[in-house]
Amino acid sequence: MGKPKLSLHAPADHVISLTSTEGPLDSLLCGQLSLSNVPPQCDIHITLARVGRLKQGKATNDEAASTKFIRELGFMGSQKEQKREQFDYKSAEKLSGCLISPPQATSGSKPVKCGFKLPIPAYLPATAALPSVDICYTIFAICTQPNGKTVQCSQDLRIIRKNAEPVRLEPSRKISFPESPLAVRASFDTPNLGTKNITIPTTMQLQGLSLPSTSSMRINETRWLVPREIKWEFEETAVLVTGFPDSTGHVPMSTAQRVLKKRKLATGTENLKLKYPFTRSGNTFVRMLEDGSGMEIPFPVSAPKTTQLGDSTALSVAGSHILHTVLCSEPAPNAELPQKRFAVYLEYKLHIWLRIGEDVFDEASGDLVNRKMDEMAYTVLCPLTTQQAALVQHDGEQHEEEPLPVIPPRYDGVWEQPPPDYTTYS
Fold this sequence. Notes:
Layout: E1 5-9, E2 13-18, E3 27-36, E4 44-54, H1 65-68, E5 93-100, E6 112-120, E7 128-129, E8 133-144, E9 150-163, E10 175-176, E11 183-188, E12 192-193, E13 197-207, E14 210-211, E15 221-243, E16 251-252, E17 257-271, E18 287-288, E19 295-304, E20 316-318, E21 321-323, E22 326-327, E23 341-362, E24 368-371, E25 376-383, E26 386-394, E27 397-406
Parallel strand pairs: 2-9
Antiparallel strand pairs: 1-3, 3-6, 4-5, 4-8, 7-8, 8-9, 10-11, 11-13, 12-13, 13-19, 14-15, 15-17, 15-23, 16-21, 18-19, 20-21, 22-23, 23-24, 23-25, 26-27
Region (Disordered): 402-426
């Protein structure tokens, strides 16, 4: 008999679908194992293993963050970016498995294929390669021969968590500013997935732009706050929670430590051309509000294609413990202590800067009569949280109510003791 050989043939990616009603469900990864020269009495174990690593981050050029790093729980990039340390099966965390009993025909040199179905738990975080965190999965096939020697093969598996429904983002609150009539509100349409990036159609609603006349103005003149420029920045905050499990096998929130890692993923600028009346031909496209005192300005916000808006990366918390954490590959500092575990979730924010001037126009011709030299700058911070609509019964039919925000759980009310101070990787 020749040397035993094993070869795995399974999909490179496995998608865990998320729905607002049922949540993620356990699934099966279907594949094939090709084997030859394997004794029929040798069962073959198929195992899903995971390695999680905490890495000390290096200084990063923010402008290159969207291309150099991969974001978020789920999100592998180029082959170069995917390079990582050798996967160590012995130290890896074993998550699920199945057993294959080879048929009699495998004792020959001709390869025989056997199908398998490997359970994939729904709670698994996605494959990730963040500046401070690395989570990777591999499928192993292991056969122990009668002489005690083992034969094994492996195949990398990328776990992807994906929303099965369109993502809808919660609009920002209406924001007013001291000593200014201006009020601002940002809203977002369904993000569009392109070949290179994700585009989020964004609308800035500006109220209070029409100003009262002054004593120096003529009766046929009108005074306005006029938007000149919109700048935006797309930011990601990775919140990494680490700790040692207690007797329950889970990490107590009272002893966990938190690390924040922020990075800028994309920026953009919209130079606005607005002459009175503001909906005239040649102007930047705007929609005037019904009361005539403000306008809506639509503009696109782009983010890296790997951005997983709507992905459920919030911590899974039960009582005072964090569930479904990842085993850290780093050995415990003390032999009496268990290995450290960690969980990570992501938050997204959109920073918007408005540059606004004050102009006086002739109402009849639209000509600029006077312009105030000083300009004002306003800053708006919009957390990008997903929303879901509640279905209610009316006259025997289901109707969709106003969407409700879905926000990751807050820590403050569940810590048994005050949490330790935040630290940040360099």
